[in-house]
Amino acid sequence: MAAGRVTGRLIKLFITGDDPRSLRTVELDNWWGMAVMGRRSYFKKALAREELSRSCIYLLIRSAGSDDLPEVYVGESDDFVQRYAASPFPIAFDSFVVFTNKDDNLTRAHVKWLEREVWELLSRAEGRVQLANRSTPTGSKLPEAETASMGTFLGNMIYVLEALGFAFFEEPSGVAAESLGEAVAHAMAEVSQSFFTSAQPRSDSHKAYLDMLGDGYVLRAGSLISANATDSLPANVGKLREQLLAENALVPHDGCMRLTKDIAFTSPSPASALVKGRSSTGHGDWIRTTDRKRLGDVLRER
């Protein structure tokens, strides 16, 4: 790269009204796609836009507290306005993002392919997001050239989402192209903080281990998880626990459950909630292995 050369991409964010929280349209340089996004209170205003009568892929997002996970529903439609003008919503969401195109080149087959790909990515993002879809999208089979084109479209969608703060697809330490196991192995040299907590009260032998990787966290394989879950366990963490049990990623061990794979989290609280089987404040429950400082104190020092 030439000395002094500036690299980057231009995102155009247009707010439709005087209120900075109003409905927004988002465009990315050299891309024929676009997004319409906003809070649920602006949903009816979105339905009045001509762009949303085209084929699209969309995300309905329910935010969560510090000890819970965001819930996301991904869908597609050849006419978003008709789909939701009078239909019930699949989840109780508080924000939405609809991706469509500027020139009617996006077809129903394209958005069905995109829906399946986004669903696959979100289904592997356990610990960062809870997928709300009850069934697997059918997807579609595209010619080779169109598959490549939609791969580029998908990459731009993820770029826009992450630029807007929706880090659903982000791996710890910014690694997105590898599996989590490989990412953790390659990033071990960069692990500056390692923490532990106990799966059982007042036990020094039933421990779980959490690594801080960049701005994210990884609950390590081999960690022990409480065999029981209480009613205070956040709903989305409960769903993650059920998923791990169904996958045999939690196996019985010494009165607890042993985690058999690494799981990435964007917050320490759902990680400790999973370990303890109840609501948990991660900043208070995770202890640094080197000096027994609480995670919250470590973060304040940073």
What does the model show?
With 302 residues, the protein is of the alpha+beta class. The protein folds into two domains: 159 residues, no CATH class; 129 residues, no CATH class. Helix content is 28%, strand content 24%. A seven-stranded mixed beta sheet has the order 1-2-3-6-4-5-7. It has a five-stranded antiparallel beta sheet with strand order 14-10-9-8-15, with helices on both faces. A three-stranded antiparallel beta sheet has the order 11-13-12. A hairpin with a 4-residue loop joins strand 2 and strand 3. Helix 3 crosses helix 4 and helix 6 packs across helix 7. The longest helix has 20 residues. The radius of gyration is 21 Å and the shape is elongated. About 7% of the residues have low confidence.
Q: Can you lay out the helices and strands and say which pair or pack?
A:
Elements: E1 11-15, E2 24-28, E3 33-39, H1 43-47, E4 56-62, E5 71-77, H2 80-84, E6 95-101, H3 108-123, E7 130-131, H4 144-163, H5 180-187, E8 193-198, E9 207-213, E10 216-219, E11 224-225, H6 235-246, E12 250-253, E13 256-259, E14 263-265, H7 268-276, H8 282-285, E15 287-288, H9 295-301
Parallel strand pairs: 5-7
Antiparallel strand pairs: 1-2, 2-3, 3-6, 4-5, 4-6, 8-9, 8-15, 9-10, 10-14, 11-13, 12-13
Helix pairs in contact: 3-4, 6-7
